[in-house]
Amino acid sequence: MEKQHNTSDKKRTNYLSWDETFMLMAGIIAQRSKDPNTQAGTCIVDESNVIVGLGYNGFPRGCSDDSLPWRRGLEFKLSETKYAYVVHSEVNAIYNANKPVKNCKLYCVLFPCNECSKTIIQTGIKEIIYQEDWYHDQEEWIAARKMLDMAGVTYRQYTPQHDIKRLFAQSPQANTQPNNPDATNTDEFIFEEII
Ligand code: ZN
User: Fold this and answer.
1) What's the predicted TM-score (pTM) here?
2) Cα separation of 129 and 143, whole Å?
3) What residue spans of 97-195 are helical by DSSP H?
4) How far is the CA of 8 from the centre of ligand 1 (A)?
5) Of the listed 75, 90, 115, 188, which one is catalytic?
6) Residue 67 above 80 pLDDT?
7) In terms of DSSP bridges, do strands 127-132 and 105-110 run parallel, antiparallel, or are they unpaired?
8) Residue 70 CB-density burial (10 A; 0-12 exposed, 13-18 middle, 19+ buried)
9) CB 16 within 8 A of CB 3
10) Residue 136 DSSP label
11) How many whole angstroms from 176 Cα to the centroid of ligand 1?
């Protein structure tokens, strides 16, 4: 089908905000995670809104996703759970950064825990934009906010401006067949859960 061109000489107004753009990036990279319970993603951007690093929750490089445990639960020894091994998305994004993250913004699907907050503070990140705050009242997150407040790192919850699903449904690509038919068969990748 031939593309229908818009003849307007005015710029588009229905474009994504920076917050929406980078939170989508965080949500997409989160889908790389092998964790059966939690898919967390982080996107770090500099003061010019250029992406500096992406990360998701996973085991360190060289540590097999198939050999280490993904289970959680207090009935197991620490070394028998994922908690002993997983690197959180925020810290992975900092490790993956292609330049120092001083004064950068960090977009994350989940509010950072206390351990990630330490790294966020120490590397000079200035602002956190988060989507969910599921563990707000747990000790680690109380400690996280205490440290972030002391260190002057600001945080705010993401507010979407668009119905992203509708926006994507309007794109011409939405009507084309994907090259990989398997990609449409999985029920694990639920786009609306990450935006
Ligand atoms: Zn963390």
Assistant:
1) 0.84
2) 18
3) 114-122, 139-151, 164-169
4) 47
5) 90
6) yes
7) parallel
8) middle
9) no
10) T
11) 38
CA of 131 from ligand 1 middle (Å) equals 14
Q: Longest Cα pair distance anywhere in the chain, in angstroms?
A: 64
DSSP letters along 25-91, please?
Answer: HHHHHHTT---SS---EEEEE-TTS-EEEEEESBPPTTS-TTTS-----TTS-GGGSGGGTPBPHHH
Task: Please tell me the distance from the alpha carbon of residue 174 to that of residue 179, in angstroms, as a whole number.
Answer: 13
Q: What are the residues whose beta carbon lies below 5 Å from ligand 1 (ion)?
A: 88, 113, 116
101 within 8 A of 123, measured Cβ to Cβ: yes
The mean pLDDT of 63-71, rounded to a whole number, is 94
Write out pLDDT tens, residues 161-170.
887 777 666 6
Length in residues, the chain:
195
Q: How much distance in Å is there from the Cα of 171 to the middle of ligand 1?
A: 35
90 is catalytic: yes
Whether 167 and 23 have beta carbons less than 8 Å apart is answered as no
What's the distance, Cα to Cα, between the start and end of the chain in Å?
30
